[in-house]
Design a protein that fits this description.
The chain is α/β, with parallel strands linked by helices and 278 residues long. The chain has a single domain (13-257), classed as 3-Layer(aba) Sandwich (Rossmann fold), CATH 3.40.50. Helix content is 44%, strand content 14%. It contains nine helices and seven strands, in the order H-E-H-E-H-E-H-E-H-E-H-E-H-H-H-E. Helix 5 (116-144) links the parallel strand 4 and strand 5. Helix 5 packs parallel to helix 6 (170-190). The longest helix is centred in the middle third of the chain and has 29 residues, at 116-144. The model has no long low-confidence stretch (mean pLDDT 92).
Length: 278
């Protein structure tokens, strides 16, 4: 290893660490999982579709990277499901260096007809499950933490939790604002446990959730054209931010939300993240 490789490794390597990425089989979760595997971590991936997580884990293991991946099923939409997920992680490891709370849901409807059931569903998965899973896994995070190298929690929020724009996704935008505030609360409480808690606020990235606007080349181009940087997010954007927060170089950062948005939050020319879809 030459000097440059050794220097970068000292800042961004997660070699030997164990991570859990919820919703890690698709979209931003998949990007985070792949980054961690490439940087040397053992990555546990969970979502409702266990077979999908297992297939993605096989794909990541086939990369020949320094780390490895394991997939399993976990339904975080209920208290029972969160408890089962925590037990599944505990059965696989006695310490957890990184927890990426990425699983989430959205719902779009007109203001006049937005259903209460959709509000409850989105808030429950996007906010309540983050709190409960983090709390249930805190003993494993504490076991992995040290003064020099804290354990890390990353919550996936959204620029829609900062911008006062719903685009019909009233519960989603509100839930992501709650995630940002919860991140600060947990950071305040967990810093002395040697656990950092931060969040990402992504703009549009290719994912199952944004497939209506980004799945096709034309849609991705139109969505990107609305961004000040002229494009949607790329896997490398997520990977670099993930390794910053999880590597040694990010050990002094807690309680913050990092926008990964191409400039939406400092640009006042658009009120929407996505083009109108017929």
């Amino acid at each position: 290893m030459d000097f440059m490789d050794a220097y970068l490794s000292s800042l961004f390597s997660v070699e030997g660490k164990t991570a859990l990425v919820t919703g890690g089989a698709t979209g931003i979760g998949r990007m985070m999982a792949e980054a961690l595997v490439n940087a040397g971590a053992r990555v546990l991936i969970c979502s409702r579709k266990g077979e999908h997580c297992e297939a993605v884990a096989e794909q990541l293991n086939a990369l020949g990277a320094a780390g490895s991946a394991e997939g399993f099923a976990a339904d975080l939409s209920s208290e029972t499901g969160v408890k089962a997920a925590a037990e599944a992680v505990t059965a696989r490891t006695d310490r957890l260096h990184i927890l990426a709370n990425n699983a989430g849901a959205t719902w779009g409807a007109d203001y006049e007809t937005f259903p209460r059931s959709a509000w409850d569903k989105v808030m429950n998965l996007n906010v309540t499950s983050i709190f409960e899973l983090t709390r249930n896994l805190t003993p494993l995070l504490e076991a992995a933490a040290s003064d020099d190298d804290p354990a890390r929690v990353i919550n996936t929020a959204s620029v829609m939790g900062i911008m006062p724009v719903a685009d019909g996704c009233y519960s989603y935008s509100t839930s992501k604002a709650a995630v940002i505030h919860l991140t600060k609360i947990l950071a305040n409480e967990m810093t002395r446990k040697r656990i950092t808690v931060n969040a990402f606020a992504p703009g549009p990235f290719p994912s199952k959730m944004t497939a209506f606007a980004t799945a096709s080349g034309q849609g991705a181009q139109a969505t990107g054209a609305m961004n000040p940087m002229g494009r949607i997010g790329r896997p490398a954007d997520i990977a670099a931010a993930t390794l910053f927060l999880c590597g040694h170089g990010g050990s002094y950062v807690t309680g913050t939300t990092i926008p990964l948005d191409g400039g939406y939050l400092v640009h006042t020319g658009e009120e929407s993240l996505f083009p109108e879809v017929d």
